[in-house]
Amino acid sequence: MLRKKFAIIGGDMRNVYLADLLKKDYQYVEIYGFEKSGKPWALKSSPLDFVLEGSRVVVGGIPLLSDNGFLNMPLAKEKLCFSEFLEKIPEGAHLIAGRLTQQVKEQLEQKKVRYTDLLDREEMAVLNAAATAEGAVGILLQEMPITLLGSRILIVGYGRIGKNLARLLHGFGAEVWAAARQYADIAWIEAHGYKPVPIHHLARFVSDMDAIVNTVPALVITKDILEKVRNDCFLLDLASAPGGIDFKAAEAIGLKVRWALSLPGKVAPMTAGDIIRRTIYNILEEEGGVLS
Amino acid sequence: MLRKKFAIIGGDMRNVYLADLLKKDYQYVEIYGFEKSGKPWALKSSPLDFVLEGSRVVVGGIPLLSDNGFLNMPLAKEKLCFSEFLEKIPEGAHLIAGRLTQQVKEQLEQKKVRYTDLLDREEMAVLNAAATAEGAVGILLQEMPITLLGSRILIVGYGRIGKNLARLLHGFGAEVWAAARQYADIAWIEAHGYKPVPIHHLARFVSDMDAIVNTVPALVITKDILEKVRNDCFLLDLASAPGGIDFKAAEAIGLKVRWALSLPGKVAPMTAGDIIRRTIYNILEEEGGVLS
Amino acid sequence: MLRKKFAIIGGDMRNVYLADLLKKDYQYVEIYGFEKSGKPWALKSSPLDFVLEGSRVVVGGIPLLSDNGFLNMPLAKEKLCFSEFLEKIPEGAHLIAGRLTQQVKEQLEQKKVRYTDLLDREEMAVLNAAATAEGAVGILLQEMPITLLGSRILIVGYGRIGKNLARLLHGFGAEVWAAARQYADIAWIEAHGYKPVPIHHLARFVSDMDAIVNTVPALVITKDILEKVRNDCFLLDLASAPGGIDFKAAEAIGLKVRWALSLPGKVAPMTAGDIIRRTIYNILEEEGGVLS
Amino acid sequence: MLRKKFAIIGGDMRNVYLADLLKKDYQYVEIYGFEKSGKPWALKSSPLDFVLEGSRVVVGGIPLLSDNGFLNMPLAKEKLCFSEFLEKIPEGAHLIAGRLTQQVKEQLEQKKVRYTDLLDREEMAVLNAAATAEGAVGILLQEMPITLLGSRILIVGYGRIGKNLARLLHGFGAEVWAAARQYADIAWIEAHGYKPVPIHHLARFVSDMDAIVNTVPALVITKDILEKVRNDCFLLDLASAPGGIDFKAAEAIGLKVRWALSLPGKVAPMTAGDIIRRTIYNILEEEGGVLS
């Protein structure tokens, strides 16, 4: 394996762990923008020119940019604007980061910089879903006054996160209900040994639950449904914006609700960093032997 | 619910159970071709004209036809040719059966008979996979001289059957390895807590296994791979023809191999009949309220 | 069922939930000493005389007494000394509480008050162990930077808590190791599908673990053993005083340690209250029909 | 490790596998009485004198004797009477076998032969229970016309076998009910996430079951209870003689019953042999270093 230079530019704690793990693989890694990470070796960044020069793989944050057009670098002491970053990436490098906008992609193409959006990688989504499900269990353990053993929990949506969460809760001895739209998903719910709920009949089933966990990124748990929920039922939303619960209505009714986002990086940052590492290796392998 | 007439024409024990279960749902059911099923109520069939007359749903076997052009009716005393059957199906009826050929479909269209191929129904495939996995466990329990607890088993392919089987074996305390091609499937294997094997590296992993179960319907377990297998390793193929194991090579080497097909109908005919029943209901509901 | 009067005198949130649950069973319940519980119905206690008068079952805290000889009433506004309490318990009542000292027992016998120590009840210990295991999982999820999926965790001791915790961790896809002394326990560890460690060989196995959870109430994880532990291994002690980890040595080495006690009342107070309720019913049923 | 001579005299296939496994551990092993085992190396036994001479560990069958006073040697061509065997065991040897009668023990003591009854070894019972549970699952898969997924199964008795079986069935997605007498066992049933049945209320619960598995070696499933069972419920008795089901009554009612004994040796003879091997090592280790 010929060693390639990796430049890691910003991102959160996941990228700090990523740097560590790549080094353990004997990769050549330079970092930029982690002065506030608490890691001694990141206290002082080398100049950006030095970090990027000759790098074949440039890793950014997830997302790559923060709202204001600067790079997403929550652990950096100073800001870095995208145009400066773009100018310094070497031609022929491969930028790997999250949520690349159309505009960013075009600018990269002009500079002959290849790119991959991590959020398009299915294997990353699957592994992150496992971490998200663990985070969700942690929240349920914290917020519910009863044990998961013997509790009755409804999961809305049976995609990657729903499947992983159902399995964990079943392992605790919870009675797991799962709601989905498609017949095939309903069949999977049954094949896995849980109780299926057709999502358009949600209202009929919510009143008996100790907790309801939403994973669908669309308003499915409306005011009408919330009004049927028991007042000591805990509501957890794992779906990205705008979420799937009518939070305003839930608060008006006096229900305990929590909206938890980006759990992998929060509850298992080292695993989350490792997931990025492995996804990067897959990307490079598909590209044909950058690693070999 | 307005009752519709169901005519069940042939098929195996699954359709016998199907008839029973539909009757328990208070449906009007007539049957044809189950004289040898051992059920008292099926000893004598009514004439085909009577059975089909006025029926809105006609259920055939899986597959609908046997090789020689007759209807697939293994439990019938007499044969029935497709042309006679076709002539008597009422216009406007819905034929639900398995593996409909292009020719059959065209003839049905000419007669204005709607049709659905059960083998195209994802929910049926999922639920049958759960039954198949149970059947596979039954065979492993029977054929292996060791307990599943503590055994090391490799599942080749991580589709519907592979996923279900892995879960069951894990529940026994087996060390489960699963081989797949796609990165996303490899990610699922890990997320589920099993050991992943890239399918193109199969040869490296087979030598340590107590059993190998194939689920891929293409020759993946070739002579080269078989030569690396331990001589007391049990090989089970669950894939439909042509199967995924080079059976000839396996026998030449002296390996214990078994090819098991159509397990749901064999190991759990009542559940298999129930799966058909529920799939039929889904089909009718999608059609818009035949049942409601 | 003839209703008997229950008097609940002090104890923590578990007894608050206990009062609630007994009322839901239509029992006659009076409480004393929960003014600071946050429950509206407990803001003001009736006089002790009234509460105890005519009561057939008197429930105290776990333990019954705090260190200084007063009743254990953490949620009360005022203290209550045992002699006053003793004076007012009606003859023929049954006192049910935790950790009754020999002296207390003798004084109760003199007053012809029956008593049962909840800590002697096996069913309560088993059910609490399930809650403790959930609490331990919550702590591991919080403290470890990696997912439980794929982690390697050693549980020291395979009693009630060890068994429950092993099962939960296995459900997450952790690689579970468990250490025990007896051959029979080692056999159970294997039968459950985990990896067994003879406890006298602990030192050989600790170096590979991501976390070690002790459940043995005796110093088993000594300085010698701690020195072999990886420096990012998380140590959790669930054993009652004096605990099983040499905390001083662990801190000197710089290991991350946590000692968590009385988890059921903290992580699942309602379930913990329900466990007390059911144990009380069992006690009364054994006594012969107080409830019937 | 100093090698000791092992003499294996009779017993079933488990002892054949035992011989094989001991040899793989580089032990010196002689065998007697396995001519009909189908193993080439056992076709011809050496003379008994040679086999026993100088042996330090003598392993017999489980039980040691068959009903008629001969050694239990189902795979031998010829019979061997106990007195001849006794005469030839060297003084100071250790006889390890199953179900030693008081008379046998006394005769061994006179000859200064130590002995251990394998049936007194808890670790062997635990590991065999795991194998028995797998065998029971195999029978249920074979005999029931429905999948275990979604079935409702009652296990009577929550000892070693009941616990193992419950866990396996739960892994299939069965709804598991378990009946026990003690409050503590009921608590374990709940802690494990199954539905508890007080054994004296058995009659109330049997009518809804798809299968009932008895593990209690005393008549608990009486005629009265059998009369409440659904007529398509499958009954399996795993308890040693006299069993726990009133077989006569069950047959009179027309219920499908099966009594399965000695499952480990039948369904997993190699594992069963390995369990004996490991138990022997434990015995020798306790004895103080015969192996070390």
From TrEMBL, chains A, B, C, D:
InterPro entries assigned: Ado_hCys_hydrolase_NAD-bd, D-isomer_DH_NAD-bd, DpaA_N, NAD(P)-bd_dom_sf
One Pfam family, short name: DpaA_N
Alphabetical list of Gene3D superfamilies matching this protein: NAD(P)-binding Rossmann-like Domain
Coiled coil start-end: none
Residue span, S-adenosyl-L-homocysteine hydrolase NAD binding domain: 128-275
GO molecular function list: NAD binding
NCBIfam families: PRK08306.1 (NF006162)
Protein name stated in the entry: Dipicolinate synthase subunit A
Protein's organism: Thermoclostridium caenicola
